[in-house]
């Protein structure tokens, strides 16, 4: 059996760069030589605390790009050499939700780089030299889209859906709570879509500087100022939409305070704690609370923006590291002291 280099998660704060068996594509699968992988905020959370979504041992990595080098039975050999990214949602295609095109809600789905699904079956991801995935999950890269950009197609699709969620209209005032990678990509789409005033919050000035570079008109550092200062930028009326990408439980009640009557709150972050809210503040003000989870086919839409140069992700990619450096990179990112925003791993 051939070997390859990979980064394996063995439990909270235990990630190792080691040699493992190289996967062989099964029927209906392709084998991808990974070129670039991106570290997601959810990867960092699993690294810090773990959950049944990432049962060890497991190779993380659901944001990546590469080149098809081998195919399994039933897959055309013309696929070999194709530059691709991957939709990590491995849906069943048969259930109620799949038949409606809502593959992100499939109860039987598995996910690349996670242990989702009823069986919690291991599904290794792209923090490795090679990865095998079903052919249906492959997203070919258009000419002009780089491997670096291809590694960000997945999170960009998440942000694209969140930015246009509910009943988006041009000229709307939007507050983005949290200016990490997801928040910053959402801000870029809001600008492209024609939002009115875009305001961003965070606790770190370097992220707020990035928010301005991405298109935010105003920013609020909620570590040094009350988040309610953001209301000043709407004349006290509140925001048409509040998009929540931060993971602190208190942001949900913050969003209720900051949205206007009849406005919408879009929850993107996976907040893992119970939150107490007063339903009267939702019903009595006719608010919409919407969970924006993943995407369906929007990786193709995002590809068009990248290929046409309407979207620039260079200002959020702050560092690129070799695969062998990944365990130390995770330690740094989990410490809370890192100045990185979006980190890529280069797999040679």
From TrEMBL:
Class of the enzyme per the UniProt entry, highest EC level: oxidoreductase
SMART domains: PKS_ER (SM00829)
InterPro entries xrefs: ADH-like_C, ADH-like_N, ADH_Zn_CS, ER, GroES-like_sf, NAD(P)-bd_dom_sf, Zn_alcohol_dh
MF GO annotations: L-iditol 2-dehydrogenase (NAD+) activity; zinc ion binding
EC number: 1.1.1.14
Keywords: Metal-binding, Oxidoreductase, Zinc
Domain Enoyl reductase (ER): 11-345
Cofactor annotation: Zn(2+)
Listed PANTHER family: L-THREONINE 3-DEHYDROGENASE
Family named by the database record: Belongs to the zinc-containing alcohol dehydrogenase family.
Protein name per the record: Sorbitol dehydrogenase
UniProt source species: Thermovenabulum gondwanense
